[in-house]
Automatic annotation (TrEMBL):
InterPro entries per record: Cytidylate_Kinase-2 (IPR052922), P-loop_NTPase (IPR027417)
Keywords, comma-separated and alphabetical: Kinase, Transferase
GO molecular function, one term: kinase activity
Membrane found in the keyword field: no
Keyword Transferase: yes
Family matches, as PANTHER family: TOXIN, YALI0E33011P
Source organism, top-level taxon: Bacteria
Protein name: Adenylate kinase
Length: 198
């Protein structure tokens, strides 16, 4: 059965300005991939909160809050994060569109495992010189173990923030890989055959 996101993609595709999208969900669910895909399609910049937050040796950057607030104060953006505590309220209240990637736990586990293995093997630089290491796999702070530990809490966090949001927004709740493909296909169709207006 095809999931329908018709109203959401129409709203997104037909707005030429003032588009502020939060792509929410647990780590490893595919937020950055989807945010980048949408960015290329509608020409709106992605704000990588992780890149702003993590300094060398994974230490929080002191300028994170001021820089992040300045960026989300812009008319249009896509954020590939549910937010950090310092800016969560402002981020969610300014969002015009929320995409909740809410995939099953086992899907998230395997996606994160494969991603982390590749990053560790290739010594991929993430932000400000930080890399995942073999040693991190044996600590509680490794992204895979952290995501599994926080899975239920993150779902509750996103659900509560959606319910508490006071400003108008459009919501796409994506609960499977197939639904994610349906969303992308419907957005492609609307951008090609719909009419985008100012």
């Amino acid at each position: 059965m095809t999931a329908s996101y018709e109203l959401f993609v129409q709203s997104l595709a037909h707005r030429a300005t003032d588009v502020r999208i939060v792509v929410a969900g647990i780590s490893g669910v595919g937020k950055s991939t989807l945010a980048g895909e949408i960015s290329r399609k509608i020409d709106v910049e992605v704000v990588e909160l992780d890149a702003l937050h993590h300094g060398p040796n994974w230490q929080p950057r002191l300028t994170f809050q001021s820089e992040a607030m300045a960026l989300i104060g812009r008319p249009s953006w896509i954020v590939d994060s549910s937010g950090y505590p310092q800016i969560t309220d402002a981020l969610w209240e300014r969002a015009t569109h929320i995409i909740w990637l809410d995939l099953p736990r086992h899907v998230v586990f395997w996606r994160l495992a494969i991603r982390s293995i590749a990053r560790t093997a290739r010594r991929t630089e993430l932000w400000n010189g930080n890399r995942e290491s073999l040693r991190q796999w044996f600590t509680a702070d490794h992204p895979l173990w952290t995501a599994m530990r926080r899975y239920d809490g993150r779902r509750k966090f996103v659900s509560e923030h959606i319910g508490a949001k006071r400003t108008p927004f459009d919501l796409a709740h994506i609960t499977s890989r197939r639904a994610g493909n349906d969303f992308s296909a419907q957005l492609d169709y609307e951008l090609e055959f719909g009419q985008r207006v100012d």
